[in-house]
Amino acid sequence: MLLLLSACASPPRPQIEERSRNRPETVITRVPEYAVVRGDTMYGIAFRLGLDYRDLARWNGIHPPYTIHPGQRLKVVPPAGDVRPAVATPVRDDGVAVTAPLPDRPPPSAAPSRPVTSAPVTAPTPRHPAPLPPPKPAPPPPAKPPVTPPPPAAGNGSVVWRWPVKGRLLATFATGDPTRQGIDIDGKAGDPVLAAAAGNVVYSGSGLVGYGELIIVKHNDTWLSAYGHNRKRLVAEGDRVTAGQVIAELGRSGASRDQLHFEIRRNGKPVDPLGQLPKR
Question: pLDDT tens digits for 212-246?
Fold first, then answer.
């Protein structure tokens, strides 16, 4: 009977290997303070701790360009009663606050002005002027040189995303799993890694455990993207990059195979890149 039941049992399901498990987990212990070490940046620390860099800067009284120094101790938890500042009064480029325009006319309570009278005027006898020659056609206006639009200013608007590499998916995003805060994409060593959108490079280094050679791009005040396990980084902190620009060579630094680890973060928090990237 036991042999018969064993023969009728359904075969076991094949196991699906999650490639992201090969990436070492970054264990974060949330302590009240963090000691800055050489190579740290405000954006890198915030990225590592899953914080909004603006909150981290505000808690520590640090203002743009967010310069920090080795040995400096940063508060990494909000102080008691901390609230985000309200939206400031808009200002013009010259620093003058924008206020409501003053009325062009006096209010109704103003004293009325005295009416002005004038003597009647006799209209002159019309004359028949000599016919004028037909006007000459105006010359066409000179062609204007093309105007290059300025780069978009930092704000809170949406971002148009594109895929950073063309490979197949190895692992997907999982909410709450520190080893799956993005997606892993297959590729060959040396394949070009493209910027998923235009922005400024705010981190380029290998100081974050588990990411290997890492690049972080700030697209506006809300959105960041990260590119890990590169073989070679081709951009430095402070560089401005355009959408589709080659920023790195794909590799396996910090991983067991050639792949790109790609993350998108909104206000410092990881979101599923597949919900932002175009379908393919």
Answer: 999 999 999 999 999 999 999 999 999 999 999 99
Neighbours of 144 (CB within 10 A): 6
Bridge partners of 267? Answer: none
**CATH number, residue 67:** 3.10.350.10
Q: Report yes or no: 265 and 223 within 8 Å, Cβ to Cβ.
A: yes
For residues 27, 30, 32, 33, the Cα torsion angle rounded to the nearest 10 degrees is 20
Specify whether 57 is located in the same domain as 168.
no
Contact predicate 221/188, CB 8 Å: no
Q: What's the total number of domains in the chain?
A: 2
- Kindly report the CATH number assigned to the domain that includes residue 236: 2.70.70.10
As beta bridge partners, residue 33 has: 75
Q: pLDDT, tens digit, for every residue of 40-77?
A: 998 999 998 999 999 999 999 999 889 999 999 999 99
Enumerate residues 6+ apart whose C-beta is below 8 A from 157: 220, 222
Sign of CA dihedral 36, 24, 203, 177: negative
Cα radius of gyration (the chain): 32
Tell me which amino acid residue 75 is. K
What phi and psi, each to the nearest 5 degrees, are found at residue 56?
-60, -40
- Domain co-membership, 177 together with 271: yes
Last residue of a domain, one of 20, 49, 78: 78
